[in-house]
Amino acid sequence: MNPVLLALIPLLPLFSAVLLMLFGLRLPRLAVGTLAVGAVAASTVATLLLWPAASGDGLLVVLYAWAAVTGLDLPLTLHFNPLSAPMTLMVTLVSTLIHLYAVAYMAKEEDVVRFFALLNLFVFAMLLIVLADSLLLVFIGWEGVGFCSYALIGFWYQEGKNADAGRKAFLVTRVGDVFFGIALLWLFALTGTLSISAINAQAVLLPAATVTAIGLLLLLGASGKSAQLPLMSWLADAMAGPTPVSALIHAATMVTAGVYLLCRFFPLISLSPTALLAIATVGGLTAFYAATCALAQREIKRVLAYSTMSQVGFMLLAVGAGSVGAAMFHLITHAFFKALLFMAAGVVIHLADGENDLFKLGGLSRKAPQVAILLVIGALCLAGVPLTGGFFSKDAILLAVGAHPETAYKILWLLGIISALLTAIYTFRLAYLVCAGPPRTAIGHVASPGLVAPLWPLALLGLLAGLLNLPPLLGGGERLMHFLGPYAGLQPEVSHLAEFGQWGLAALLVFVGWRIARSRWSKQPAAQEGARIDFFRSGWQIDTLIATVLLRPFSALCRFSSEKIDKVGIDGVIAGLAQCCRFGSSSVLRMATGRLSTAVTSMTVGVLLLMVWGLWTLLLR
Amino acid sequence: MIVPIGHVLLLALILLLLGIACVLARRTLIMMLIGVEIMINAAGLVAVAGSALHRQLDGQILAVFLMAMTAAEVAISLAMVVYLRRRKGTIIADAFDGMKG
Amino acid sequence: MATTLFYILALVAVISTLLCITRRNPVHAVIFLVHTLFALALIFYLLGAPLVAVWEVIIYAGAIMVLFMFIIMMLELAPTGAGEGIGGHHWLSVLLLSLAILGCSVGILTLDPGHSANLPDFYATPAQFGYALFHHYPLAVELVSFQLLFAAVGAFYVGRSTPTREGAP
């Protein structure tokens, strides 16, 4: 019973996707939506039913013995353990709510079959990444989410820039995938197996330099998918896709896949302090970078995109500090409130008839109070207002970083603090600009209940997520940490004083951020312009940097190859050969004059040559 | 016992080369044919000299046959010259370059 | 005495041929060629071939050269010879070419050990000649006569006049 359930969890969305692809156009709209939502909901139910099996060593299910010959054993296995179980539950639950939302959001869309087929396919691929024990399945899922992300970002491909955004996402993450592939093959060469649990068990036997190298490769692979430095330029442009896509893929699931991969490999990478420091540095720097960019954005979804980048940076920071538990905690809470924020933003854009410039919105609290409340709840969680889910998870991260003995981590802790302050500022900026004051764009009709209803469970989860891992100081049992058990990584020892101090600091940051935001943006000012703002708005001019450093030399090289090497060189050689032939033949042709004198003269010269040769032979003798 | 065979052959050689020079250097068909005549005569001289050296008559017979063949050849060649003259209006050999290219 | 005669005749032949090939007027060229043929005929006699010598005069100088004259007169090629002489056309390269071949040939000739063999005293009477011809080469005689027939027919055909149109025979 249990193995079948486990196999059904990823396969149900796959079946639904295939059915939609084959027969979707013949089904009525209602059936399409029901099938899509139903498949993911069934996966959620299966996860819940399977929950007891996740404790201890978990449940290992072999889907298919893909390569079983002497010396090579690569079964395709799924592993349901304390690390993958919460992640699976989060993915399936959030996916169900977002699918419900999407049914209402895409109500006027024509191409709805393609949308839901791709969305279900995405959920299948994501569940593969989460559940798989065989690295081959992980890689399949990895590539699958990349493809679905590309297809869904460019869903409205008739507009060029949407297709471009999809392509950019695919290509940038592809760079990361190359590094992941190298790490995968290297691990296989070292250990002879593709099973993550087996590799983790053998990790102590590997030489230290190899472990560091593999750790760095995995970090690069994770950076691609999770939009961290240096492979982060695609996430902001990915907002060209429909809002359910942004909510599902670029808030809750795909961008967390990188973090999750590093968590899965924690027994391996924790053996190399260099790799851990690298992970933490990347996370910390990205958190800071993205927070500064979010502060300068004008479009509502771009603010949320950079915010996601920043929060995922926090998660990486936690992994680098050794606390997988804190990273997973923040991952789960972030999924809840970020999906909520994205969907609420989608409703706002819907109500404002497609307007998504912050400085042209406003007055939501008066015109659509329900949506405004949901938005504000999400904002409170994101900013880390005390006692919300976001507060506890972010604090767990900062505590873990601060408690680390090395000095580098102290600097990173400082960076985290600054980023947290910036988070608060831009979150309240968003909230004030959208909700406060009179509406600058007409907020039209009332939102349909199908759009708003799925948001309430998320809001509740976001607020109450702190209960998942309540620290002992407040009487909680740190249930998540205990559930994760050995998978939770290092648990720093923090004194009560340090913990109180951190909470106080966090609360102070939130308060300061709120006051700054209120003073600047609650009275609906005009947008700030200028070169400095443009620098941050364009993501520290990363696209220009990439174009100058990578794209221009590459296209120059291509142009050089095409014009000089190919046209002049290779074609020139071939044309030159043809020219030589032509020249040779025309030279010979000049001898065929058709005149008698030419022939006779040639003959006589031939006779002379013969005689010379005869004389020569006679002389030699 | 009159002359060494080498001298006779040398004479024949000189006549042959004069014939070749006539064919190469003159442009009209008639002069070319005359050059051919000179060459054939040189060949006949060699034949007769050879016959005298070996005391056999075959060389002389060859010379006679050469004369007969030359007669036949000249008949046809001159008929062709007449024809070509009628056709092109000139007998300069370079004018007949229909095989050009 | 025959030796001196031979060398004088050789000189005559060469000079006469030289003059023959350098005349502008084809009639003059033919006349000089007849000179050469006469000299050659006498050389043949000195080499012991009286019948060949006589035939050289009768057939070669008497028939073939006369035929040349006929054609030259008929086509009215004299006195200009279509306007050029020996000096007109690559004469220097022809001269050099000929001298080169001459040099090589003389070289080959002198290298041959038998070149200084003196010619014996030899004389072939017409009876001997006739005997040898008809005894050893009767078939060749018949073939030569066929050949002459073909030549006559060919000459008739090629040289016929086509009054209606220019072009193919």
Give the C-level CATH assignment of chain B. Answer: Mainly Alpha
Task: Assess the beta-strand content of chain C as a share of residues.
Answer: under 5%
What's the story with the biggest beta sheet of chain C?
none
Helix content of chain C: over 70%
Strand content of chain B: under 5%
Rg value of chain B: 17 Å
List the uncertain runs of chain C. none
Order of helical and strand elements of chain C: HHHHHH
* CATH hierarchy: architecture of chain B: Orthogonal Bundle
How many β-strand runs of chain B? 0
- Oligomeric status: heterotrimer
Total of helices of chain C: 6
Gist?
The complex is a heterotrimer of chains A (621), B (101) and C (169). Helix content of chain B is 77%, strand content 0%.
Report on the architecture of this protein:
Helix content of chain A is 73%, strand content 3%. Chain A has 26 helices and two strands. Chain A has a two-stranded antiparallel ribbon with strand order 1-2. In chain A, α3 (84-105) packs antiparallel against α10. Chain A is elongated and about 120 Å long. The model of chain A has no long low-confidence stretch (mean pLDDT 87). Chain B is an all-alpha fold. Chain B has helices at residues 5-25, 29-54, 58-88. In chain B, α1 packs antiparallel against α2 (29-54). Among the domains of chain C are: 1-80, Four Helix Bundle (Hemerythrin (Met), subunit A); 125-161. Helices cover 71% and strands 0% of the residues of chain C. Chain C has helices at residues 2-21, 26-46, 50-74, 91-111, 126-136, 138-159. Chain C starts with a helix and ends in a 10-residue tail after the last helix.
Secondary structure: elements and pairs:
The complex is a heterotrimer of chains A (621), B (101) and C (169).
Chain A: H1 2-23, H2 29-50, E1 59-69, E2 72-80, H3 84-105, H4 112-131, H5 135-153, H6 160-191, H7 196-202, H8 208-226, H9 234-237, H10 243-252, H11 254-264, H12 266-269, H13 273-296, H14 300-321, H15 324-351, H16 364-367, H17 369-383, H18 389-402, H19 407-435, H20 449-452, H21 455-464, H22 479-484, H23 496-521, H24 531-537, H25 542-589, H26 596-620
Antiparallel strand pairs in A: 1-2
Chain B: H1 5-25, H2 29-54, H3 58-88
Helix pairs in contact in B: 1-2, 2-3
Chain C: H1 2-21, H2 26-46, H3 50-74, H4 91-111, H5 126-136, H6 138-159
